[in-house]
Amino acid sequence: MKKDLLSIDDLTRDEIYRVLDTAEAMREIGERPIKKVPTLRGKTVVNLFYEPSTRTRTSFEIAEKRLSADTLNIAVAASSVLKGETLADTAMNIEAMAPDMIVLRHASSGAGHLLGRICKSRVINAGDGMHEHPTQALLDAFTIRRHKQAIEGLKVAIVGDLLHSRVLRSNVLLLTKLGAQVWVSGPPTLVPPGIERLGVRVSTSVDEAVADADVIMMLRIQQERMQGAFFPSLREYFHVFGMTEARVRRARPDVIIMHPGPMNRGVEIAGEVADGPYSVILEQVANGVSVRMAVLYLLAGGVEEMN
Ligand code: CP
Prior knowledge:
Strand content: 5-15%
Number of strands: 9
Structural class: alpha/beta
Radius of gyration: 19 Å
Number of helices: 11
Largest sheet: 5 strands, parallel
Helix content: 25-40%
Strand order of the largest sheet: 7-6-5-8-9
Bound molecules: phosphoric acid mono(formamide)ester
Shape: globular
Order of helices and strands: HEHEHEHEHEHEEHEHHEHH
């Protein structure tokens, strides 16, 4: 693997499968009475989150602790960032204390690339602006593969706020690389120009996108990144693009419903779909720990025995 994991483009198809296979072994560790192995003993991992996070930050920290790494969380609100320190200066100061890995979430697209250039430490992108969220796509692929055995040939419909979604970009890169047929759907104002060039089918009709789908992945309406009105009202959005039980019935009978979280219930997804029998949303969260353990292990060299 490359020094850093900043984008799905950093991984070959074989490396993606290596992460998924390693995550299966990590999952077994999570089922033991004592969920801890000495694999990353003596390694220091810094979690540097400039944007809010529940799932990603927590699952990275659990993953690091299960692998016995020394974990440090930098609370940006209590750091010198508030005194005007730049990301580059913060990074150089953290680097001076010689951590082995830095997990970064930042509002700016490309922040991880800046850190990766400055730091000898390995950098993992935990979400950068509207660019990418590679470990989310890996845990999504892991979840899909556990349910469908293979990803090649599946129809995956991704629906919602496509324009502001780093989860969309990473998933499109990964799923097309593994041979899935990806459809995307959302209001025309929230479709990134030129997205078809990534090898996806675009439809403004959700019903068309989800017809006979094996997987439906819903994306959050990211109002915090919107300046101006992209659709008339949340109520109308739900009516036209929300995932309802009636829409789910257009997909294959064994469809799985995914959402990276956090969810806006009653906006992009009906509560009964989020909590319904096809939903694997909480499985995605659980799988996030195994996949992030695999990424940390492989970036650290992947040579220690996992016992
Ligand atoms: N999926 C995801 O990135 O969630 P968080 O923002 O809670 O980390």
